[in-house]
Amino acid sequence: MSSIGLNLYDVTDTVDKLMAKQYIKYFQLQTAKSAEQIQLTAYGSLQSLFTTFQQKMKSLGEAFDTIAYQAVSSNSAIVNAVVTGNGVGSGSHTLTVTQLAQAQRYSSQAVFSSRSTGLGFDETLTFTNGGAENFSIDIDSGDSLEAIRDKINNAQDNIGVSAAIVTSTGTGGALQYNLVLTASEGTANQVAITGDTGNHFDFTETVAAADAEFTFDGYNEVRSSNAVDGVMDGLSFTLSALGTATVTTSSNNVNVGEKVKSALIDMLAAYNQIITFLDGNQYVTSKDENSKQSTTLVNNVFGFIKSRLQTAMNTAFNGAGGVHTLRDAGIVISPSTKVTDQYDTARESTSIGSLMIDIKPQDAYDGSTTMDWLLNNDFNALKDFFTNEDSGLFANVNDMIDNHIISSESDGIIKNAMDSVQKQAAYTDKQITSEKDRLDLVKAGLIDQFSRLNGVISYYQNISDALEKQYAYLDNLIRSGK
What we know:
Blueprint: H1 11-19, H2 24-64, E1 69-73, E2 79-83, E3 91-99, E4 103-108, E5 123-129, E6 134-139, H3 145-154, E7 162-169, E8 175-185, E9 191-194, E10 203-207, E11 212-216, E12 219-223, E13 227-232, E14 235-239, E15 243-251, H4 256-280, E16 283-288, E17 293-298, H5 302-313, E18 331-333, E19 337-340, E20 348-351, E21 355-357, H6 370-377, H7 379-387, H8 393-405, H9 413-480
Antiparallel strand pairs: 1-15, 2-14, 3-11, 3-15, 4-8, 4-10, 5-6, 5-9, 7-8, 11-12, 13-14, 16-17, 18-21, 19-20
Helix pairs in contact: 1-9, 2-4, 2-9, 4-5, 5-8
């Protein structure tokens, strides 16, 4: 008789093979989670692109404000001049200062022996200027001279009065202290002090307020400050002494048009990155090469974001100049391009809507391009189209980006999309945990079953082996004739 030949199972190998199909749903959930994380990364990248675009718009605005002139004073001890705008042009201007503006000053005639000890009286000081503006401070008995100084200087409604403590040497060499108050320059800013009911300070005006008086190219001017602007477009200056000086303005050899055009090219490149990103990354795919499972998600809001952005870019400007649209500014749509989805490299899309500066010569501009003609002949209209604070391109686009596209509020398109993905990702995590728990139970059950089966096989194999020995013994007895 031969052995029944039962074989034990390789429990680990057998269970792994049986579990392979059980893991399909688990791997699907893992690829879904990976796709959701990639999708969140895509939204984060898009936000960064919008931030870069806004920075480039800001740089273009700064390029429009590039100063192309410089100012030099023949006597900087009398006047220093600074160019603030390109309307100044080149020229020479005579300025004669006959009186400097000065600030009114009060000094306490009462002398104090300490600056840090409480003065021991209560009252309210009120300061009122010529424009009937005023502010008050309350003095408590525990307030020292230093505390009173700080109350004046730190008052939120202060109208330009500054306080200081002057230290001097009195009779016998003892230190003594006076409170000194200084108003802003000019007669319009001189102040009256009331409320010193006990004459505790006995304030006396030691310097009277005065306005600056000067002539500029023969025109008489009076100003409340020695820092003067508004006399001539694009020029500001500071008066320092009486006398006559010549202020000369001239080109500083900076080509504003070139700086604007370069900054505009950078801005359009940043804008085009957004357009191609939105067009080229409509899908997110995650693949697991081992399990061959994959998940594809759709960035549904990308098309909506593109539409809102293009609407803001193409909103007509109602300014007084001749530039009302991108085309008026010499900016046109670029030819369509093929782009590969960076989150699903097997996909290729067509991107439409990028922008470029039109390089076609225009007959109306004597063969010059629209942009070059505007930079040289209608600079202010071009600048106003982009930078007008009320309805220029920057205002429209930044409003759309800040308040709708990347807003952190409830109407933020990207925020809402990311919130939705994050909620789905949290649900996917729960599903993964639940499926992993189920798989662990199934695997444990299979291991238990096959371990038990191996025990049964071993039991019957032992019986078979014992019977085999018995049969062999009996067979030998029979053959020996015993």
